[in-house]
From TrEMBL:
Species per Swiss-Prot/TrEMBL record: Afifella marina DSM 2698
GO biological process: chromosome segregation
One Gene Ontology cellular component annotation held by this UniProt entry: chromosome
SUPFAM superfamilies membership: KorB DNA-binding domain-like, ParB/Sulfiredoxin
Any Pfam family: RepB
Signal peptide extent: none
Designated name of the protein: Chromosome partitioning protein, ParB family
Cited SMART domains: ParB
Domain ParB-like N-terminal: 11-101
Domain of life of the organism encoding this protein: Bacteria
Length: 296
């Protein structure tokens, strides 16, 4: 008999005896809204737990309702209404993963996390798709993303810079296909503005540094002294080039301001500009001309 088929009843359960089997990070703004709503009108829907015996007495494993549980804890409540079901810890964890996948609103990284959790517990793609209501193609795509160690793409998904579906397409594509995936994401309005720029930077970083992330210094190749000198020289050359461009632009601006100032001293030219309605100047150009006039 499945967990969902057990009859459920509501009990008041001590919050300090509940263990969250499938913890996840919370959006702070949404969590504040949950706390404020519960403080104002109370708990609308009980959480779901399963009981188990521990060395210190009766304990509970959370199946569904981490946000509501944490809101009760923040409000200083000692007990919370809960549906108590009968299930072992493995079935409880899988049910939690399935309910998180199937809920209407979820963060993309939560979906990836939960599909990965079910894969780790031996569930086939078809089983995950059937339990969660997701398409088989989508589940297979996310599984590929996880199995290939696409840590850069997963981090971008978690930060909200790129949708999971686009990340999966990038992971499956070659260099030309990656550009096509970005183009299609733009056409579908999935990546626009800053998100598109961030996605392009991500693709370039992934191409140069690989798809994985590592905070372990041993995993990073050590740079030789020659490589460090070369990198320093390249950076210096870039800065010198920027300085030359800035100097050239400044010189052109000075020339334009000087030429305009000289032309405006010609009465016939000034009258012609007034006749054509062209006697106004950009504020910054006019200010620079005034400074040149004062410096004479």
């Amino acid at each position: 008999m499945s967990t969902a088929q057990h009859s459920r009843h509501v009990e008041l359960v001590p919050v300090d005896r509940i263990t969250v089997l499938n913890p996840r990070a919370r959006n702070k703004k949404i969590f504040r809204e949950i706390v404020a709503n519960i403080a104002a009108v109370g708990l609308k829907r009980p959480i779901t737990v399963t009981r188990r015996d521990g060395p210190e007495g009766l304990h509970y494993d959370l199946v569904c309702g981490q946000g509501r549980l944490e809101a009760f804890q923040q409000l200083g409540q000692r007990e919370i209404p809960a549906f108590v079901i009968e299930a072992d810890q493995q079935a409880c964890l899988v049910k939690s993963l399935v309910e998180n996948c199937a809920r209407r609103q979820h963060r993309a990284i939560d979906l990836v996390h939960d599909i990965g959790g079910m894969k780790e517990r031996g569930y086939a793609d078809a089983d995950i798709a059937r339990k969660t209501g997701l398409s088989l193609e989508y589940v297979k795509g996310v599984a590929r993303l996880l199995s290939r160690g696409e840590q850069r793409l997963l981090r971008a998904v978690e930060s909200g810079h790129i949708p999971v579906s686009v990340a999966v397409e990038i992971a499956d594509a070659n260099d030309e296909g990656v550009q096509e995936a970005l183009h299609q994401a733009y056409e579908k309005n999935l990546l626009r503005g800053r998100k598109l720029i961030a996605a392009k930077r991500l693709v370039e970083s992934r191409r140069r540094r690989g798809k994985g992330l590592s905070n372990n210094a041993k995993a990073r190749p050590r740079m030789s002294s020659d490589a460090l000198v070369k990198a320093y020289q390249e950076d210096t050359d870039r800065k010198r080039f920027l300085i030359r461009k800035a100097d050239a632009t400044r010189s052109r601006l000075i020339f334009i301001a000087h030429a305009m100032r000289e032309l405006l001293h010609d009465d016939r030219f000034a009258d012609l500009l007034k006749t054509e309605g062209l006697d106004s100047l950009p504020k910054k150009l006019a200010a620079r001309m005034d400074r040149q006039e004062l410096a004479r």
